[in-house]
Amino acid sequence: MKIYAQNRPVDLFLWNWSGHTHEDVDKDGAEMQKIISSSTSYNGFGEAFTTQPRPTKNSPRGMPGSMDLSYVTERIIAIWFPSSSTSHSYRQGQKQASHMLRHKHGNNYMVFNLTEPKRVLKNEHKHVQEVGWARNLAPPLENLCSICKEIETWLSADEHRIAVLHAKGNKDKLGVIVAAYMNYSSICGNAEQALDRFSMRKFLEENIGSISLPSNKRYVDYFSGLLSHTIRINTAPLYLTHVTVFGTPAFEQGGCRAFLKVYQGQVPLYTSGVYAVARGVHQFTVNVAGEQRKGLQLRGDILIKCYHRSESGRDAVFACQFHTCAVTDYTLSFTRQELDVAYKDPRFPKDGAVELHFSQGPDIRHPAPAPTPAVPFSFADDAVTRADSPMNLEESDDDDGSDGGKCCGFTQDDLFFEL
């Protein structure tokens, strides 16, 4: 397990003195000063901790399943568990984290859980707020606003309060919330929080690195742009008419059998037929608004996912998430690096892209995309294409079970009001 004070590792034994009280610390102050005199770092509360880890053969640094605990700022802490953590190591980590946090902050901390609800969290921590969202997806834009407001409300109620961000698996979730809150505090905070914003940026650079999921990056940019008014809010719905894919995903004999699914929030709205895209086809277009159909009305958080229909099932080709409030044009383009799944899949062409075409109303027709080579497609009733993607939170691997809490969130109208 690795502990960090102001983004630097801290020895666990200084946190976890079994049977020692604050009076004991005062009595042994001189002895402790001697221990830490060679290498010290201040955690923002006027107390020095060692900054160098002491790995042993039995507990190597960075061992699978280990927990990372870092101070993002003086009043925000991040706790992260890798996906390789077993149920046992996760429970033990929570017990250790609870002991450390209570020893340091009493019950003046709130755990903001960014992943699936777990009963062990509520068993070990007095204050837990479930604010998680589905894995491999960006958080709903309304949730970003809600989470930032809840953190701010908790911290502003008492100067001794601490916010603890908890995540398991990919570190993107920590990065998204820290980046969003950094933007939120720059607009809604005061001048005294300037140092906190510096600490948050340093945490992102040193502990998270670049946010990997393209939709996560997009949603952080949305949030920043809406707060700073550099993005003009679109309150009207959009009507999707066509989706054009440039390049041929090479999933089967140099081509693919592609079909699209469109979701609004977690509700499936549309499933296309299966398009037989052969090797050498430079682009193909899915006509969402056909001769007998109107444009597909979209409003709020939208997910478009493309699959390859294989003989045994289906494979994800690309996915893209966007929010209609940030779309002000009738064409929305995504390069390969802006597409979830495809950005790291060599089967998707390096110069590939996706374009979405909209109209103002269900019957209003903007110029359709340029004609593309005819691609055979089928609307055959297929259970594989009909099946909806799992949109729920990560499955719990906690033997104690989970509470099945709901994600927090506002309606789109609430988002407009808040921003």
Automatic annotation (TrEMBL):
Residues 58-230 form the Phosphatase tensin-type domain. Pfam families: PTEN_C2 (PF10409). One of its GO terms (cellular component) is focal adhesion. Residues 235-361 form the C2 tensin-type domain. SMART domains: PTEN_C2. It comes from the Eukaryota. This is Tensin. It comes from Henosepilachna vigintioctopunctata. The lineage of its organism: Eukaryota, Metazoa, Ecdysozoa, Arthropoda, Hexapoda.
